[in-house]
Amino acid sequence: MRIKLVLIGALCVALSIPAQDVLPIRGFAIAAPKKENVDRFVKFINEELSPRQINTLILRVDYNFQYKSHPELAEDDGLSQDDVNKIVLACQDNNIDVIPQINLLGHQSWHSDLEMLLKVYPEFDETPNIQLPESYEWPNDDDLYCKSYCPLHPKVHEVVFAIMDEIVTAFQANAFHAGMDEVFYIGHKDCPRCNGKDKAELFAGELTKIRNHLALSGHKLWIWGDRLLDGKTTGMGMWEASMNNTHRAIDMIPKDIVICDWHYERMEPTAAYFALKGFDVVTSSYKKGAVALKQLAFLENIRRNSSEETAQHILGMVHTSWSSASSFLDRFYAPFDKTKQNDAVCFKILFGE
């Protein structure tokens, strides 16, 4: 890693550009901490993110906030504005941009539990006839991974846009992350509004609505990019890419959406695909340090050897953690063992342990 950083520094001297401009985004995506862990998380920001020059923090807030516009959606003991202010102040002190996330469209349930939106507003459910099992297993006869809300329900955006607006204001953010990953239920045959409609057009329509609403207040939209990739042609399958034809939406959506291109098992060249399509893109790593370093090298190669028009769309990397903030911190502060494959070890490898 030191050799890599020396080479980057030499390149920057030769080109007379700052080192951070080679890959402008050094990011981390994680669940927002629970109330009792806010101070511990702020300490992590100050003592660990800042020295590693992390400049972007994507926080999965979802319903872990005391919403005033829709208090019925707030989880018990959600973050208060005072809690959020502690996180925001730490990020501002360390020149870190905060991007709050609420999972939209898909991920409206997890295993046998509904998330708050469909729990409170069951009429928004794209698949109301599919019941959550007492004991969840995959695969299953209903092809149930996570529920979706119906993007054509006439009332859903009144609720969704209200909490979006509130959360970007609460975090003093310039951007919002809408998730939009792993959407398996879309245009379902049981939905009276979506049945028979083109899934790519439905997906593109929802993305465009969200983007246009955010643009009214000057906020940028970020999403995970898997639904915009063709799972069959690429061989990436139904998780890292789409097998239900939503991939064609890539040619139907505004180009100012930022794509988080996640691949955790291999270095896939899809960041180049998004950049060639005209989208700003960051690559996302997870557990495998060797894969993360290959992803980093690939992005650096594109930035150095592509046209200026293409290279400018390669923004950098956003490492991901998919557990609670507290359990990540437990792993992070455990003795470092580079042979382990987890999100904390990979974080340290990527950002230079």
Q: How large, in whole angstroms, is the Cα Rg?
A: 20 Å
Q: Roughly how many Å apart are the termini?
A: 9 Å
Proportion in helices: 25-40%
Compute the average pLDDT: 94
Number of distinct helices: 13
The largest sheet has its strands arranged as 1-2-3-6-7-8-9-10
Describe it for me?
There is one protein chain. By secondary structure, this protein is α/β, with parallel strands linked by helices. Helices cover 37% and strands 14% of the residues. It has helices at residues 2-15, 38-49, 81-93, 116-120, 156-170, 199-216, 231-234, 237-240, 270-276, 289-305, 308-311, 325-332, 343-350, and strands at residues 25-31, 56-60, 97-104, 109-110, 113-114, 175-179, 220-224, 258-262, 281-285, 314-320. The strands form 2 sheets. The protein has an 8-stranded parallel beta barrel, surrounded by 6 helices. It has a two-stranded antiparallel sheet with strand order 4-5. Strand 4 (109-110) and strand 5 (113-114) form a beta hairpin. Helix 10 packs parallel to helix 13 (343-350).
Brief sketch in words of this structure:
With 353 residues, this protein is α/β, with parallel strands linked by helices.
